[in-house]
Amino acid sequence: MVSNRFDEHEADFARDYLKIQELALRDKQFKAIKEWMSEHIDETYISLDSEYRDCSFTNNWLKQ
């Protein structure tokens, strides 16, 4: 359900500050998580049920 509609406009820092701030924070969080995973994925133990072992994962959490 659409509850609000905004006319199309070019991003304006004064008008769209909260949205830009939210997007920048989310991007920073994703980068921090990705960095943490790349540093810790080899030494982190993950237990998977056998029914999920054939699934493809975005990251290589399953150790062979």
| Rg of Cα set | 19 Å
Describe the oligomeric state of these chains in a short phrase.
single chain
Number of strands: 0
Profile the largest sheet.
none
Tell me, briefly, the overall form.
elongated
Low-confidence stretches: none
- Give the DSSP E fraction (strand runs of 2 or more residues): under 5%
Spatial separation of the terminal alpha carbons = 45 Å
Helix content: 25-40%
Write the layout of secondary structure elements.
Blueprint (H helix, E strand, L loop, with lengths): L16 H24 L24
Structure description:
It is a single chain. The chain has one helix at 17-40. It is elongated and about 50 Å long. The model has no long low-confidence stretch (mean pLDDT 85). The N and C termini lie far apart (45 Å). It is built from one helix and no strands. The chain is mainly alpha-helical and 64 residues long.
Brief digest:
The protein is an all-alpha fold.
Observed structural traits:
single chain; 64 residues; mainly alpha; 1 helix
